[in-house]
């Protein structure tokens, strides 16, 4: 399927990723129709049509499907049933519902990553306090308890240590199904952004090094300071994952790097990713454009890095600095969000680094 310019790309979700995807789609001459439950959302201002509806609203999904030539997603927690309803109406959804289903459940995700040949930190599913005690005995005291579903930006996580009260940790997650994962003493976190088209052709971006604070991405610097062989291995592993998922679009795979070269897969996001925002300024073809090209059946664009770059997230009150100050610190993107709540991603800066 190759969509002609003027065709309509549907996006489920209306956050900043949807806003930047819509911008790329409009630049290439597409129409953009967004469905999301929010009234005020970053992408509402950047689309031709906006359906405000819950993802479970069958009537709204059916009308949305009828209005779109292809549908994609801007966040991974879109209910799989919504994606399946659109696909059942005969409208392709890219990436497919299976990729979303796997990414929505940390246990399924780990199993899938391991089956695809990647190495994850030791982990165990945890559905009860007894499971947690057994898992802690097997994995060791330094570990992270993570809810299987709905965790992002460090939410739904509890760090455990030798002195931790397991019962309290288990209650802290309100008994939600979880996994216990060994703590990884990593030297570096990196991510690989890869785009794959409907014929299986792939392009891979130069991996950035990512710095998190309190579980939230603060900055990404590209290229990550790693030997070429490690970079090539990380790219190859992302390719294996994308192939196994029969994936169409951009996905981001996060790794911990240990001992300078071992790659431990953390998680993947079936969508464009915050750690790739520098690609707009620093690459021949950015992640948003390549996602839209893949989804539309267009040839993928060159991901080559034109210069080393750093992306800094503006989180909460960071974005309340005087505009002149923000502008002096890099190329500014703001997401159009009204309230700067703590921990909320409001925008980002990208600057060119000396080679
Ligand atoms: P996640 O939501 O799983 O990506 O976790 C958010 C961040 O917490 C990661 O980017 C790491 O900085 C940290 N983190 C998560 N899992 C582990 C782990 N097993 N060992 C060490 N740090 C971790």
Task: Give the SSE map.
Elements (H helix, E strand, L loop, with lengths): L7 E5 L3 H12 L3 E6 L12 E4 L5 H10 L2 E4 L6 H9 L8 H8 L1 H10 L7 E4 L2 H11 L3 E5 L9 E4 L5 H7 L5 E5 L5 E9 L5 E3 L4 E5 L2 E7 L5 H17 L4 E10 L3 E8 L9 H4 L4 H10 L12 E7 L7 H6 L2 E4 L10 E8 L3
Parallel strand pairs: 1-2, 1-4, 2-3
Antiparallel strand pairs: 5-8, 6-7, 6-8, 9-10, 9-11, 9-13, 11-12, 12-15, 13-14, 15-17, 16-17
Bound molecules: adenosine monophosphate.
Task: Compose a concise summary of this entry.
This protein is α+β, with helices and mostly antiparallel strands. Helices cover 29% and strands 28% of the residues.
Q: Can you describe what's shown?
A:
With 355 residues, this protein is an alpha+beta fold. It has helices spanning 16-27, 58-67, 80-88, 97-104, 106-115, 129-139, 166-172, 228-244, 279-282, 287-296, 323-328; strands at 8-12, 31-36, 49-52, 70-73, 123-126, 143-147, 157-160, 178-182, 188-196, 202-204, 209-213, 216-222, 249-258, 262-269, 309-315, 331-334, 345-352. Strands 9, 10, 11, 12, 13, 14, 15, 16 and 17 form a 9-stranded antiparallel sheet that branches. The protein has a 4-stranded parallel sheet with strand order 3-2-1-4, sandwiched between helices. Strands 5-8-6-7 form a 4-stranded antiparallel sheet, with helices on both faces. The N and C termini lie far apart (40 Å). It binds adenosine monophosphate (AMP). Adenosine monophosphate is lined by residues 121, 144, 151, 154, 181, 183-184, 189, 212, 215, 266-267.
